[in-house]
Amino acid sequence: MKDFLEQLAEIEVRDPPPEFDRQLHERLNRLLLAQHLADFLLGGVPWAIVHFFRGVVDFFAVTLTGKNRK
Fold this sequence. Notes:
Elements: H1 4-10, H2 20-65
């Protein structure tokens, strides 16, 4: 009995169809776009909002009290 890997080496494998590469890239690009949008909307936007409003609150606190909060 031959080794399993030797049997696999003897099997002929057809070339993929010409449109395979393009279809793969289109599907992958859609998934990556969805992932990046989700990351931006669920991570980046809330982070930016929190840091922006912390700056606004500090600005008004210093303006009204004349003292830095920190």
